[in-house]
Write a structure and sequence with these properties.
This protein starts with a helix and ends with a helix. It folds into 5 domains: 3-65 and 683-708, no CATH class; 71-178 and 626-674, 3-Layer(aba) Sandwich (Rossmann fold), CATH 3.40.50; 182-284, Immunoglobulins (Immunoglobulin-like, Sandwich), CATH 2.60.40.10; 287-324 and 335-531, 3-Layer(aba) Sandwich (Rossmann fold), CATH 3.40.50; 541-613, Immunoglobulin-like (Sandwich). The radius of gyration is 46 Å and the shape is elongated. β24 (471-477) and β25 form a beta hairpin. The protein is 21% helix and 32% strand. α2 packs antiparallel against α3 and α3 (43-58) packs antiparallel against α14. It is built from 14 helices and 38 strands. By secondary structure, the chain is an alpha/beta fold. The strands form 10 sheets. The protein has an 8-stranded mixed beta sheet.
Length: 709
Amino acid sequence: MKFEQAIAALRFDPVVPWWLIGALAAFCLAAVAAGAFTRAQGAIWRFFAFAVLCLWLAGPRVIEETREGLPDIGLLVVDQTASMSVGNRTALAAAARAKIEAAAKDLPDFELRTIVVPEAGSEGSRLFTAIDRAMADIPRARLAGVMAISDGQIHDLPPAGTTPFGEAPLHLLVPARGEEVDRRVRIIAAPGFGIVGKRVTIRMTVEDLGTARNGLTMFGAAKLTIRRDGEPPVVETVPIGLEHQIDLTITRGGPSVVELEAEPLEGEVSRANNKAVVEINGVRDRLRVMLVSGEPHAGERTWRRLLKADPAVDLVHFTILRPPEKDDLTPLNELALIAFPVRELFQVKLREFDLIIFDRFQNRGVLPAQYLRNIADYVRGGGALLMSVGPEFVGATSLAPSPLGAVLPARPAPRGGLVNEAFRPGVTPLGSRHPVTEGLMDWKAAGVARPGEAPWGNWYRRIAPIETRGDTLMDAPDAASPDGRAPILLLDHVEQGRVALLLSDQIWLWSRGHDGGGPQAELLRRIAHWLMKEPELEETALVAKVDKGVLTIERRGTEEAPPGKVTVTDPEGRSETIGLAPARPGRARATLPATSPGVWQASDGTMRAFAAAGAANPPEYADMRATGSILAPVIRASAGSVHFLDPAGAPALRRTEPGRESSGASWIGLQRRHDHIVSGIATTPLLPTWLALPLMLGLILLAWHQESA
C-alpha cells in the first residue's frame, strides 16, 4: 500500500472521549515541558511514553477495502437531423460511427453507448437535450467522454463556458473537409396581407456565413432574382450583409407567392437556403357599393342590413321616393327629400364603385339613356352589376329595352312574364358545381316539404325570362318551359365585367324566417363576392396549397369533364405528372409530399397555381454549414477537441488519465475514471493493547534509569 493510500485508510476509534484525551495530552505536555525546563534527565523518554499512551487511547486503525473496478462509459451521439443530409454527411457519419463502435470493443474496462439526435421539426438540432436524457442512467463518475458526430449546427447550447456532463471531454466529429461557407436569404419582416392596388415592403438581407468579419461579408453585392406567381422575374443587385427593401404592388385579391433567390456563392455548401418564400394575401380595402332602390318595399331593408353588417363595405344607398312624373303641387321648400345626384354618381364617380346594385329599379326618367349607357360601359370595362327585379321588369318602365339591357343575361317574356305562384327555388346541376351556390342544399337538414325539394321556404313571385345567356345557378318549376324549369338566378361574364340577375324580389322572405327561411345572407354574399372577382369564388380555378408538408392541388370547374392530370414542378425544377381524383361535384384533387422548401407550381396546361412550402425545420436550413465554431466554447470548457472526418475518417480512441492531454491530431482521449464498488472491509489496529502496554512500561523504565544514573 502506498503512503498516500495508507494515510487515506487511517481511522481512529478512541477508548475514551476525545476531550479527555485532549486534557490528558495537555497535562502530559505540561509535565514534559517542566522537566525539559529544569533540564531533568529522562524527559525525552517520558515524552515518548506519554505519546504512546495518548496514541493508544485514540485507537488508531487501518481500514483496508476490497474493491471491484467498474468499466468506464463513453457516449457516442449521432446527429440525424435534416442538415446532416447535405452532401455526403450521412455517409461520413455512418462510417465514423461504425469505426468508433468497432474500436470501442477492443478497449479494456470500457463500455460505449450510442444515441441519436432525431429530427425535431421546427426546434432544430437538440443535441444537448439528447445527452441529458442519456445521462439520466450514466453515473458522472464513470463518464469517460462524449463523442458527437454532427455538422455542428446545434440549437440548444448550454451557457457559455459550461458543460452539462461534468469533467468529461466533448469531442466533435464533423463530417466535412473543414470549415464551410454558405450564402442565405433571410427575411427580416414581411407582411401577411396587402391591400389590392397598394404597395407592400419586404425587408430582407443576403448574408455570407463562414467568411470574413465574423461570418458576414459586409462589403460586396449579389444578384437577387424576384419571382411572383409565374410573372417574368425581376433581378436586383443587393448589398451583402445589409438590410434591403423590396417594394411590391398587390395586383389582385387572394394569395400571392413571392420567391427571392440569391445567386450562389462560390464554394458554398448548399443552395437550399439561397431562396426565401413569402406569401402575401391580397385583400380589398373598403369596398364601395352603391345600392339604388327603385321604390320603398319590404325587401329594401334586407339589402341594407346585409351590406351594413360588413365593416369592409362603404355603402351608398339611395331610394327613389318621388319619381319625376309624380307632381302633387307640394312646394319644393316643404319637401324633405334629397335630390338624386345623378351626374355625380353615374358619370363623375361611377368607376370608383366596386359594385352597383339595382333593387327593383324602374326606368322612369331618373337615369337618362346616357347614364344607363355609362353603366353598361362600366360593366364591360370590368365593373360589377347586380339586379334584383320584380314586377317593374315586365312593364313599360323595364330596364330591359334600355341601353343597360345589352349587358343583362335575360329579358322578360312579353306575355306572362310576371308569375305569381308559390315555388321553392332549386339549385341546378350546374349550380351544384358552381362556387356561388354549391353546398346551399345542405343549409338545413330539416324543413324539406317534399322529397327532392330544397330545404328552405317558398317564394311567391318571379319573372319568366327569354333570351337567357350565362350560367343558370337557380331555377323554379315552370310548366310552360320545355324542361319544366325556369331560371331564377343567372350569372354572366360581359367582356371584362360581370352581371348577376335575380329574377325575383322575394329573397327577403328568407331573412324573415318565412316558411323556415333560407340561406339569404350567404347566397347574396357569395353573389357579391363573385361579382367582385374574389379568387375563392371563381368558377374555374386551379388551387395549390402546402400544409404540414403535404401539397394539395384542387381543380375547380363547372363542366362535367374527366378529372384529368396536372404537372407539378418542385422548387428544384423537377417535374412530374400526377392524376386528379374526383372529390365532389365540380372538384378534382391530388396530394403529394412537399419535401423541398420553396415555390411549388402546378399546371393543367391552361391554368397555373403556386404554393409556398416553408422549410420543415427552419433552424436547420438557416445555416447549412458544417462547422466547429458554434460548439467551440463548450468544447474548450470540457478540454475536448474538433476533428473533421473528410478525408481522414474517425480518429483513433485512446484511454487517458484525468489532467492529461485529451486529444491529438489523429486520436481522441477517453478518461480513465477509476470508479469502483467496495465488496469488503478489513480493520487492523496500529497500536494494539498487547503492544502499547509493554512499550509504555519500557519507556518509563528507561526514563527512571536515566534519572537515577
